[in-house]
Structure formats: structure tokens, C-alpha cells
Write a structure and sequence with these properties.
mainly alpha; about 60% helix
């Protein structure tokens, strides 16, 4: 999965769970400081992100991912570590 695809999916989740306009989000957007999301929304998004991307986001890691770009980067790295997955995104 390409980084741009991960970003698009994170933006879609923000729209779905946080009521955020995806056009107002970029990789530097902070979940709490910029979007005012609460911890309940962030926990829900973490669970859904794990399901949609098929990766694990441990609680201690999730609380350190303050921006959209940090989440995209974590998912990208987790996918790259899975055998065969990184190659599929490049086709």
C-alpha cells in the first residue's frame, strides 16, 4: 500500500469518526491540537486502523502518534515489515 493510499484512508477515518473535512487535513495535522479530537475518538480510530490496515498499533505507540503523518508513517513501516506486503503496493 502506498503512503498516499494510507493517508487517504486516514483522512476517510477522520471524516467518518471525527466529522473532519478531509480537505482540511495534511500530514502535519495534529489530532488534538488542530482537530480537537477527544481520546474516545482516537481510541476508536486506532482500533479501526488496525482492522483496515491489518497492522497492530500498541497502546503505548498509539499515544505517541500525535499527527496524521505519524500514523501514516507507523502504518507504512508496519506494512513494510510484513513479508510480501510491501511488494504488492508497488505494482
Amino acid at each position: 500500500m502506498k503512503r498516499s493510499e494510507i493517508l487517504a484512508e486516514v483522512k476517510a477515518m477522520l471524516a467518518e469518526f471525527g466529522g473532519v473535512d478531509p480537505e482540511q487535513v495534511d500530514e502535519q495535522t495534529a489530532f488534538i491540537a488542530d482537530l480537537g479530537l477527544d481520546s474516545l475518538v482516537l481510541v476508536r480510530m486506532t482500533v479501526v486502523a488496525e482492522e483496515r490496515f491489518g497492522v497492530r498499533i500498541p497502546d503505548e505507540v498509539a499515544w505517541e502518534l500525535h499527527t496524521v503523518g505519524a500514523v501514516v508513517g507507523h502504518v507504512e513501516e508496519a506494512l513494510a515489515e510484513r513479508p510480501g506486503v510491501a511488494d504488492r503496493g508497488r505494482r
